[in-house]
Amino acid sequence: MNWLKRKNKRESTYSLEQQRAEKLATMGAQLSSSRQEKGLSLEEMVVLTRIPRRLLQAIEGGNLEELPEPVYIQGLIRQFADALGFNGAEFASSFPIGNNRVILKPSWKHTRFGELRPIHLYLLYIFIILCSVGGLSQFLNASALQTANNHQNQPKLNEETAIQSQKFQTVSDTVSSIKNSQQVQIGLTLTEKSWIQVVVDGKVEYEGELPEGTHRIWKAQEQLTVRTDNAGGVLVSVNQEKAKQLGEPGKQKEVTIAANTGL
């Protein structure tokens, strides 16, 4: 039975990889055809998409081995399609990403004598359920009795009280909306390996070198500062707006974004 499970797992993995390869080949051919029809070269697409030439070639050629993780491939396809006038999000959504599953093996088979076994846990679980049902039943009965007494002894809320309560809720919702709108969020997507430092509200949240294809998001209440040694390899999106290149390739750059402001 174990060899059958391993075989099914290999077939499932192979099937997903095969789907990605076939879908990438089809989508890459469509993007390449559209690019050539518009008379655009790969160099021009690099400028429009901020994607390195070798990644554009890998997408058009359906070469999975030259591309990063599937979730980043989908993002690159979206940017490529947007630059050619497609609905990038809709076009890229058909590329299969897949989910990684973790299989946990039961450890109770090797427990020593005197340790808890599944039957003990099952009986304990039944006991807890019975106690919970009994306690819940008593609680509901007491609540129902108290509610009936309240209906008999307490007057209903008058119209003025209801209006005041509604106004209070409206003000609370407005304050909450203003508070959320004052936050600032940045998303960083690396098209090349680069050193990055991110300072959130005066505190260094991250500092180190990130590989090509990495996508990270940070939020702050007041301001965010981004520093890099390769501005051309970093795409920055402020408050979920369209990503922009931070600067020139190989150049150091520092950018500070305050709440309710753009790049």
- Show unreliable segments: 100-115
Rounded mean pLDDT score: 78
Kindly state the percentage of residues in helix: 40-55%
Determine the strand fraction and express it as a percent band: 15-25%
Helical stretch tally: 7
Judged by helices, strands and strand pairing, the structural class is: alpha+beta
The helix-strand sequence is HHHHHHHEEEEEEEE
Measured between the Cα atoms of the first and last residue, the distance is 58 Å
Biggest sheet statistics: 4 strands, antiparallel
The dominant shape is: extended
Round the Cα radius of gyration to an integer and report it: 29 Å
Task: Give structural notes.
The chain has 263 residues and is of the alpha+beta class. 50% of the residues lie in helices and 18% in strands. The protein contains seven helices and eight strands. The protein has helices at residues 2-37, 42-49, 53-61, 70-83, 88-92, 118-153, 159-181, and strands spanning 184-190, 194-200, 203-210, 215-220, 223-228, 234-238, 244-245, 253-258. It has a four-stranded antiparallel beta sheet, with no helix packed on it. A four-stranded antiparallel beta sheet has the order 3-2-5-8, with no helix packed on it. A hairpin with a 2-residue loop joins strand 2 (194-200) and strand 3 (203-210). Helix 1 (2-37) packs across helix 3 and helix 1 (2-37) packs parallel to helix 4. Residues 100-115 have low confidence and may be disordered.
